[in-house]
Every structure is written in structure tokens, then in C-alpha cells.
Amino acid sequence: MTVSETHRAIEAVWRIEAARLIAGLARLVQDVGQAEELAQDALLIALEKWPETGVPPNPGAWLMSTAKHRAIDQLRRKERLARKQQEIGRDLEQRQHPEIEVDTGPDFGDDLLRLVFTACHPVLSTEARVALALRVLCGLTTKEIARAFLVPEPTIAQRIVRAKKTLARKQIPFEAPSGDELAARLPAVLEVVYLIFNEGYTATSGADWLRTELCDDALRLGRILAGLVPGEPEVHGLVALLEIQASRTAARTGPNGEPVLLLEQDRTRWDQLLIRRGLAALQRAEEIDAPPGPYRLQAAIAACHARARTAAETDWARIARIYEQLSEVTPSPVVELNRAVAVSMAFGPEHGLNLVDQLVAEGSLRDYHLLPSVRGDLLVKLDRPAEARAEFERAAELTANTRERELLLERAESCG
Amino acid sequence: MRYMMIVKSTPETENGAMPSPEELKAMGDYNEELVKSGVLLAGEGLHPSSEGFRTEIATGGGRSVVDGPFTEAKELIAGFWLLQVRSREEALEWAKRCPEPVEVRRVFEAEDFEMSEEEAEREAKLREQVREAGGIA
């Protein structure tokens, strides 16, 4: 194996092992930041040694025992400074050694769950949670995270350092909540997974492959989480939503990289395997007796589209009903706007226009280009071209996306 | 990217022999690992080829059917996993952890196919025809 082949092999091992490594170490040192640094140290040692010695047969265990020895050294040193030295060091070693050896044992799921909940703790800003989660749960490097989010590397590095400091300063224990508290803290975790997915999904330009890989990372995280807390319907709901959205990836861009709207997509290019997985996850969510949450409802809407063989077969009445539920659970003008579209498709444009006009009067979407864009659509259908034209022109003014602006101006033009 | 990890038949699998409890346990552990890591999309084991059949293109373009078993046991597939991983190296790492020897092949993705100009045009036209409701991407 050449050096670069070994490096790629180490990188692959790291991607698989990082989360469990850091989770196991965090249990030992009770500090996610320190655990992450210990794991990184072990990785550096591997990068030095393995090109010469070859990758060991059980690389995960190798990394774990290397990091663990450093952890124990550090703990000993700290204890010595505190003049309590050996007995505590010995005690620690005896207490922690046997547990840590078992890095794939039944404890591992608990450790990982603790890591998920600590890295996504609400005491951290959303941005910090996202960066830390990608780092400790997905094993991404600072550079990769920076590239994926199109921000300078030092910004991400700082974000991670600050996140780790915040966790330490606020003395956030390395633990997962249980019972009601778990349900209360779960949205903070799910939000991170959802944001990671969206960051990859909305990057339709495709110039940077890493951004689409973020979708895969989010899906992987979601699937892991579903295994860790199988009793939480919103986790399955989120996984369902992501699987179904990911199933459309190939159909979402045209031959020149331009975005293709859902109703215009070639459905034969939707990934049926991911759709099946999504529908199965939704079913799991719905089998759990609990009032539907936002992810489950969004997944149910996505499922309506996924089940329709053609755009014309879409069950809009059902989608409109689910949007109504969704606007009860998470009221928002954007949800209302989507509901207006569904209502217009199900019951006619005049009904949709009613809802849209309420939104216009309410004013919070004043600067959102899709509001005039949707209104323009409805006006075209109601045969009021002059008003429609004004709406498309206004929408074109509001959008920041060049391609979208061109499209809207074309539509304005076609209104005559 | 997706990789298919294939287990080949052996005379035992072709005879329909079930795996030993140890083998089942090792495979169960491995599968659990794949699921918990979020990389497993699908995976199945196949019945012996004696229960399968093949179609062949007959002269004139129709299909004739040939029933199993098929003889070239080493070339037959006994089961597969479909993995979603970040790199070839990661697929390799998972393959090395599998209790059985496997063959690993990369799955074609949509972007591996280049659309002809004709196809692209056909699609653009279709899109033109159905350009309707905005708002939902």
C-alpha cells in the first residue's frame, strides 16, 4: 500500500469509528471536547505509524486503546498535580479499563446516544451544534465542514472550539436525557440533522460534491438516531422525510444543472428504494401512539407526492388536510403559503387566492419572493393576466437567485 | 455512493444447507453493525439456484425459460447487501469486517449516465408542457 492509499484507508476507518471512539472516550473523561482531542491525537499517531506498519487488523480497537492510554496518562498527570495521584489513577484504571475495552459492546449505543445529546445540547447555538455534530458524529474534518457550508475554515474551527468550551464551562454532563426530558430535548437534535440535510439539498448548483454528501451524512445520522431511540415517532418522521426527499435527487436538476420543480420532475428518476424506505419509516412513526409532530406531518405530505405515479394523480385534498394539521402544530406563514397552493390544487384557484390574500394582508412574508410568485400563478389560472404580470415582476425583484429571476421575468412576459 | 456487497454460492448454500448457529450469530452481529452505522440500504439472502430460473432470448426474439439449478456454483450469487458509503475505502473497510468473503461492486448512479442531447431536449419539452404551480420545490 502506498502512503496515500494508507491515508485514504485511515480516513475511511476514521469515518466509521470517530463517533464510537469519541463516545467511548467521553464516558472515560466526561468531557466531549477533551474526548474529541484525544481521538484526534490517536488519529495523528495512526497517520504516522500505519504507513510503515500497515493498517492493523482491528483498526477501531487500535485507535481506541491508543487514545485510552493517552487519556489515562492525562488523567494521571492531572491527578498528580492535584497531589492525589496514584491511588486515584489506579482506581480509575481499574474502574474504567474493562468497560472501555468493549468498544462494540452493548454499552456502545448508550455512549453514542449521550454523545448525540451532548453535542446537540440546546445551550449551544444551532450553528455550533451543526459543526460539532459533523465533527464528532460524522468524523468530518474542519476543512470539510467549512467547504460544505461555504464559510472560511477558521470560522468553523472557532465555532467548534467555542462549542467545546461552552460545554465545559457550563458543565454540561455527558449524558442523554431520559423519559419526558428526552422528548423535550429531541427537537434540538432533529433540527441539527435536518439542517445538515438541507444544507446539502438546497445546494442545487452541484459545483461542490461535498454539499450533496451532506445529505448522505444527515440520512446516516437520522438512521443511527432511529436505532438509538426507536420509540420516538418524530425521529422516524424525520428519517421518512429525508429518505423521500433524497429519493428525488436525480430528478431535481435538469441537464444544465437548473432546478426542476417537484411537479415537473420525471418521476421515473425518483429512487424507489429510498421511497420504500421512507414510507416504511413513516409507517413506523404512525404506529407509535402519539399526536403527530411536524416532521411526521411533513413526511406524510412528502409521501403523498411519492405515492402519486404522475403529478396529476397527486391527492391534493389530502395534502391540504395535512397542511392544516401542520399549521396547527407549527403555525408559520410559509406553511400557510404551501397550504394555499395545496388548497388551490384541490379545490380551485379562488380558494387558494383567499388564503394567499390573507397572508398578503398579514404582511410577514412581505419580502418572500414565493408569495407574489404563487399569487401570480393563481391569477393566471383565474385569467387575470395584468395582475399576474405585476406579481411575477415583484417576485423577480425579490429573488436573489439569477436563474429564478429569469424564469419569473419570462412568466411576467408571457402574461402579455 | 452505493456499493453492492455480494456473497457467492458454495456447494452448501446450493444444497440449501442452513448456516450454523455460530455463523448466524456472526452474520447477525455484522448486520446489526451495518444498520446501527446507518450504511445499510438493503440486503437479502437468496434461495438455491435449483429454485430459480433463467430466461434466454430465443430465435425470433421471444423468451425461453431454463430452470435451475445452475452449475457454475462459484459464480452464483447467494446474497447481497446494498451499502451507502462515502468512499471506496469505506466499502472496503466494511467488506473486511464481513464474516464471509465477498465481492464488492459499485452501483451505477444517475449521474453516471450522460443524457443525450435528444433526451435532454425531450425532457426540456416535457417540462415546458407541465410548467404549473410554483412554490413547491
From TrEMBL, chain B:
What PANTHER family does its record include?
Answer: BLL7163 PROTEIN, BLL7171 PROTEIN-RELATED
Q: Where is this region: Disordered?
A: 117-137
Record protein name field: Uncharacterized conserved protein
Q: Which residue ranges does the record assign to the YCII-related domain?
A: 1-101
Protein family membership = Belongs to the YciI family.
**Entries under Pfam families matching the protein:** YCII (PF03795)
List, alphabetically, the SUPFAM superfamilies matched.
Dimeric alpha+beta barrel
State where composition is biased (Basic and acidic residues).
122-131
